[in-house]
Design goal:
Blueprint (H helix, E strand, L loop, with lengths): L17 E3 L4 E3 L2 E9 L5 E5 L2 E4 L3 H7 L1 H10 L5 H12 L15 H4 L14 H15 L2 H8 L7 E5 L7 H7 L2 E6 L2 H11 L6 E7 L11 E7 L8 H11 E11 L12 H7 L4 E16 L2 E13 L1
Parallel strand pairs: 5-8, 6-7, 6-9, 7-8, 9-10
Antiparallel strand pairs: 1-3, 2-3, 3-4, 4-5, 10-12, 11-12
Helix pairs in contact: 1-3, 7-8
C-alpha cells in the first residue's frame, strides 16, 4: 500500500485521518502487512497483501470472511506468515460471528475484457435472434465506452472506483487517471482489478476493501469517482453519493451507471438523478438505454439497459 492512499481514504467510523501504525512489513517501498490507525478514534484496520481492509467493524468483518480473505491472498501468492497471523488476530477479536462466503458476481468475459465481436450466439429460434439483436446493440457502445465518452473532456486526476469487481474498467481508468484507487467489498475483486490494471501503463495504482454503504473519503481529494453497476445494490445509496460529493474537489466528476435508476425503490427512474442532485452536484451529461450484456455461456445471457450519468461539483 502506497502512502498516497492515506491522502484519500478516511476512517469509516468518523472520517478521521488514517496513518500507518508501527511494526508493519514493507514490500517495494509500500506497506505489505500491518495496520492503519485513525488519529481521531484510534480504531485500527488491517493491511494484508498491500490492501487495507477499511470496513466499519474490521474484527467482525475479518471473522466473517476469514476463509475468503485467506483464499484471495493465496491466489495471488501473498499469504505470508505475518498476513495469516494478522488475519487470525483480527478474527479472534470478534465475538459470536458466523462465517460467511463471498459470491463474487462476475462472468468469464468480464475477467478478461474481450473485443465485442467475441460474443457468440447459438441460434435456437426467435429467442436467440432477439438476443442476437441485443448483442448487436451492445457492440455499439456498452457501459465502458459510454462512460469514457461522457468523460472524454474531463481531467481524471485522482480517481476512486467503487465496486471495481473483476476489473472491467481498470485498464481504461488507469490510462486516464493520475492516481487510481480501486475499491470493493471483496478482497479477491480488488486483487483482480489490480491485476487487470497492471496490464496497461498509466497511473499510480492501489486497492482498498471498503463497504460502499458506509465509506468515508477525505474531503476535496478526488477529481473523479466512478460507481458502475453498484448503487442499485446498496442499502443506502444516498450515503455513497453524499460521500462522493464531499470527496470531490471543485470541478470533479461523479460517474454512475446502473441498470436500475429507480434504485429499487419503485419511485420512478428519476430516483437516481434526484439522489445525485440532493448532494449538491449538478448533472452535466447522461445517457439512457445503454446496453449491458453479461455472457455466462453460449446459452445464457443477461441483458440490461442501463442509465449513465455524470455529475460535476
Amino acid at each position: 500500500m502506497d502512502t498516497w492512499v492515506l491522502d484519500v481514504l478516511a476512517c469509516p467510523h468518523d472520517g478521521g485521518r488514517l496513518a500507518i501504525a508501527r511494526g508493519g512489513h514493507t514490500r517495494g517501498g509500500g506497506l505489505e502487512v500491518g495496520e492503519l490507525a485513525c488519529a481521531r478514534c484510534h480504531v485500527r484496520y488491517p493491511v494484508v497483501g498491500g490492501v487495507p481492509l477499511a470496513v466499519p467493524d474490521p474484527h467482525a468483518w475479518v471473522a466473517a470472511y476469514r476463509e475468503a480473505v485467506l483464499a484471495a491472498l493465496s491466489e495471488v501468492g501473498r499469504a505470508t506468515r505475518r498476513a495469516v497471523e494478522l488475519i487470525g488476530e483480527y478474527a479472534a477479536g470478534a465475538h459470536a460471528v458466523e462465517a460467511r462466503r463471498f459470491a463474487d458476481d462476475w462472468v468469464p468475459t468480464e475477467l478478461v475484457p474481450q473485443p465485442a465481436d467475441a460474443i457468440t450466439i447459438v441460434d435456437h429460434g426467435s429467442p436467440a435472434r432477439a438476443f442476437a439483436h441485443f448483442c448487436e446493440l451492445a457492440r455499439g457502445a456498452g457501459p465502458q465506452e459510454v462512460l469514457m465518452q461522457l468523460l472524454a473532456d474531463h481531467a481524471w486526476g485522482t480517481t476512486v472506483e467503487f465496486g471495481s469487481g473483476a476489473g472491467t474498467l481498470a485498464r481504461a481508468i488507469r490510462r486516464r487517471a493520475r492516481r487510481y484507487l480501486a475499491c470493493d467489498l471483496s478482497l479477491r475483486a480488488v486483487f483482480r482489478t489490480l491485476d487487470a490494471a497492471r496490464r496497461t501503463r498509466g497511473s499510480l495504482l492501489a486497492g482498498a476493501v471498503v463497504d460502499a454503504d458506509c465509506v468515508q473519503l477525505r474531503a476535496a481529494t478526488c477529481q473523479t469517482i466512478v460507481a458502475a453497476q453498484l448503487v442499485d445494490l446498496l442499502d443506502r445509496p444516498g450515503d455513497l453519493l453524499h460521500a462522493a460529493a464531499s470527496a470531490l474537489a471543485d470541478g470533479g466528476a461523479l460517474a454512475v451507471i446502473t441498470p436500475a435508476p429507480d434504485l429499487g425503490l419503485g419511485a420512478g427512474d428519476d430516483a437516481l438523478a434526484r439522489a445525485i442532485e440532493e448532494t449538491g452536484l449538478r448533472i452535466v451529461a447522461e445517457r439512457d438505454g445503454v446496453p449491458w450484456i453479461r455472457e455466462h455461456g453460449p446459452r445464457h445471457f443477461e441483458v440490461y439497459f442501463a442509465a449513465a450519468m455524470v455529475a460535476s461539483k
